[in-house]
Write a structure and sequence with these properties.
Layout: H1 2-31, H2 39-75, H3 83-108, H4 112-137, H5 155-188, H6 195-235, H7 237-250, H8 252-266, H9 307-318, H10 321-326, H11 331-338, H12 349-357, H13 362-388, H14 394-418, H15 428-458, H16 465-489, H17 496-540
Helix pairs in contact: 1-17, 2-3, 2-4, 2-5, 2-6, 2-7, 2-8, 3-5, 3-16, 4-5, 4-7, 4-8, 5-6, 5-15, 5-16, 6-7, 6-13, 6-15, 11-16, 11-17, 13-15, 14-15, 14-17
């Protein structure tokens, strides 16, 4: 009995300091002031991303228009054909689905600057080849005795160059946004922080940086179509598209210079392998599994059986990213994000075509697109405010965003089914209300997207962040291809409500899965960091952890 009593007293004496440490850690976490990263460290990176984003958006906007003009010239018809644009889109999306994971693995083995520079070089050179092919594709065909062509000459080669450019775009965005940006933010955090404090500081700093990056994207998405539209109107469709491709190729050197300056001002840690920096691991990374646990470690080298077999093993290793992706703790959140791409209730070509069929003017469509972009920009400020000022976690903001998105999409879907499509009697009030709900849903979408972006930055090991995000990009390409195939099966505009219902069901499934995952993951992560904060004072007093 005496031994049991003494043991109980020992437990009681140990539990009291633990409770005090837990209370102190919670108090410090709530009163911790936010840390602001100097803008000079991130401004060159913002400038480099703006230049890259502007070139990519301009080329992607002008390419479908150019292919339609090329088909009109080739067929000698004013109507033209969607076949060249369909070939180009399937080629680019298919190449991203197949090759993105392997390229992401290769990017993880390089410093962020080298991966970004090689991707920019691939994009610039492929755009230059497209610019060389464009004059040949719009060359007038022979006189009428010669047969016409539905697909212009050089479409296959043009699609191949476009696929290389699309792959370069994917890897470049991952290198800048998912690796370079969080590496710079982590290295700028102050030292001597507890695990939970470091997690909160990193959340706030990354939320501000991600919001600025997203505002750059939104601004370019709103302004670039206006600039390119004026250029195509002033110079003509074919000539203006060629000028856009030439300007994109000519911007290669400024892009490389901007990337070099971004690396110079960000610090030498931006050039280290695997995205590691002097600050060590991120706050969320302690919750995530190690690279060895998730299959990210390099496999054992094959026996010396000759170069053909070794080459085969290296090739298989490049395509082992799918196993790594499926073993990630953020798998559910990533798949929920992929489900967003299987939808048509967004400012895109399918919805614009449906609106044109319903008699909506081009000016009204332009207003709708601008309103959707403004809602996205407001969402970036809201995300930054909720994480930075209100001290809400990125998981809470993500759950709020997906709830608001569904709260707007479901009424829009109900109104879509009530519209008399095809009768020519669609009232402007009903259509305006439908478009208003769709535009408002973009606020919740971009809050959710911003939260998921930061989750993929902080909850994935830095050594495999490019590889995991490349697999996610591959799945988004697959979702887009499935949506295109579904639109071929439901090609009539009268069947657009059914297509929208399928897309909304995908969003609902992703939203529910994200709500479930975020709540469980955040609860487990908080318990883990409280445990670490309690154990650290004991270790500082001179005790050593058990081996």
């Amino acid at each position: 009995m005496g031994h049991e009593k003494g043991h109980g007293e020992e437990i009681e004496s140990v539990s009291t300091p633990l409770d005090a440490a837990a209370a102190a850690a919670a108090a410090a976490a709530t009163t911790l002031p936010s840390f602001a990263i100097p803008l000079r460290r991130l401004l060159p990176l913002y400038a480099a991303y703006f230049l890259v984003c502007a070139v990519q958006r301009a080329f992607s906007f002008a390419t479908p228009i150019f292919l339609m003009a090329a088909s009109q010239v080739s067929m000698r018809e004013a109507g033209g054909s969607f076949m060249p644009a369909a070939i180009f889109m399937l080629s680019t999306r298919g190449s991203c689905f197949v090759a993105s994971p392997a390229l992401g693995k290769l990017a993880d083995r390089m410093p962020p600057f080298r991966a970004a520079a090689i991707s920019a070089l691939a994009y610039g050179l492929s755009t230059a080849l497209c610019a060389m092919l464009m004059p040949w594709m719009v060359r007038p065909p022979p006189p009428p005795p010669a047969p016409t062509r539905r697909v212009p000459h050089g479409t296959a080669l043009f699609s191949l160059c476009g696929s290389v450019a699309a792959l370069g775009e994917v890897v470049l965005e991952i290198a800048l946004w998912k690796r370079w940006l969080p590496t710079t933010v982590r290295a700028a955090l102050p030292d001597g922080l507890r695990a939970r404090q470091r997690m909160q500081q990193e959340e706030v700093a990354l939320a501000r940086a991600n919001a600025r990056m997203r505002r750059i994207t939104m601004t370019v998405d709103i302004g670039m179509p206006l600039v390119i539209g004026w250029l195509l109107t002033y110079l003509g469709t074919a000539r203006g598209s060629i000028w856009v491709a030439c300007l994109g190729a000519a911007s290669l050197l400024p892009q490389l210079a901007a990337l070099w300056l971004a690396g110079r001002f960000s610090g030498l840690y931006s050039y280290q392998k695997g995205g590691r920096d002097a600050s060590g691991q991120s706050g969320h990374e302690e919750k995530s599994q190690s690279v060895d646990d998730v299959g990210g470690a390099a496999p054992a080298k094959a026996a010396s059986t000759g170069w053909p077999l070794n080459t085969w093993h290296r090739a298989l290793e490049l395509f082992s990213s799918w196993r790594l992706y499926w073993q990630q703790p953020v798998l559910v959140a990533s798949l929920a994000h992929v489900s967003l791409y299987f939808t048509v209730l967004s400012p895109g070509g399918l919805l614009f075509g449906f609106l044109t069929f319903c008699g909506v003017s081009g000016r009204a469509i332009g207003y709708f697109r601008a309103a959707s972009g403004i809602a996205g920009i407001v969402a970036t400020f809201s995300f930054e405010h909720m994480v930075g000022r209100l001290q809400r976690s990125i998981f809470w903001v993500g759950r709020l965003g997906v709830g608001c998105q569904l709260a707007c999409l479901l009424p829009a879907l109900v109104m879509l089914w009530t519209l008399p499509v095809g009768t020519g009697t669609v009232s402007s009030r009903s259509m305006t209300l439908f478009l208003t709900f769709v535009a408002l849903s973009r606020w919740g979408l971009w809050c959710w997207d911003s939260a998921e972006t930061e989750i993929m930055q902080t909850c994935v090991a830095p050594e495999v962040v490019s590889e995991v995000n490349a697999v996610e990009a591959s799945l988004t390409s697959l979702a887009e291809m499935l949506m295109y195939c579904s639109s071929l099966l439901l090609a009539s505009p009268q069947q657009f409500p059914a297509l929208a219902t399928a897309g909304t069901a995908s969003v609902i499934a992703g939203a529910l899965s994200f709500q479930w995952w975020a709540q469980r993951y955040e609860h487990g992560m908080r318990a883990q960091h409280v445990k670490v904060d309690i154990e650290l004072p004991t270790l500082r007093e001179g005790q050593t952890p058990e081996a």
